[in-house]
Amino acid sequence: MMYDYTAKEVFEMAIQIEENGAAFYRRAAELREDVSDKLFLESLADMEDRHKETFEGMKQQISDLEKTQTVFDPHEELLLYLKAMADSHGGEGNPDILSLFNGKETMEEIIVTAIDLEKESILFYLGLEDMVPAKYGRDKISGIIGEEKNHVAQLSGFLKKIHGASA
């Protein structure tokens, strides 16, 4: 049985993923001794917070039809399911990655990990996009994908700066 998602549901997952992403950077910052590294990672957490706000704003722009629930949910478990999907999708903000941090990671390793996780998120959204019928806002999912691509580009720019500083 195929389940049709709505743009609203995908935005709810995207918002959760951004919250998880901010936690990723904050945890990495906690483990750093160098003050400039801490500040840099905290700025990336703040960037995730702004990304979350962007998705919240985009979610506010969707139509009533794009918010229509497509399944009967008498116990209101859908939000729990969406949160579980967001937490376990294997990409950006995956809570399991946080447990792997031990404080010995280099800044380069943290950024490379973040880029890889962002790329996984893009693949996740591309898969979800196919599961959102046009009438439920498929076109809105491309906005999420575009934002994530921009984030990969930003992180790649940071990585180049790190390479430049260590060269």
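Second entry:
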Amino acid sequence: MEQPGLGSPALVIVPADERHLDAMMAVMHAAFDPRYGEAWSAAQLLATLVMPGCWGRLALLGGQVVGFTLCRAVIEEVELLLIAVAPQLRRQGAGSRLLLRAQEDALGRGGNVLFLEVREDNAAARCLYESAGFAVIGRRADYYAGKDGSRRAAITMRFGLDALIM
């Protein structure tokens, strides 16, 4: 991604709410391959977005929603429920920026650990999380159910938020 002032708009991370549901769903449909069963329905996304202890962030590029996160906090534990980036912007820093903001938000909300689950064979996402300091702590067999009936495992990962303070 180019820096501001070099002809391209800057990527901006802003709070998301229920008004952004359609834009978030558009990114989700573009970002998640339906054969893996990872995408949420609009009803699931909306119900979680308005739930106490949950929050979302949008990545905007030139005013367009190009990515988002959805997190949930329970006492000191925070879970990154969803992260999605429009396919045309992958490997350009949007995912890293959204992930860092989720980590910062989790710490700012009193969290001490951030968890996530990722499809075991999603090498690109796992690389992003590992490069951000997440560690594998478990595996859930048959977690994701694809539309074709196939099942895939999820890897559970953990990030100690105290690493942001050091």
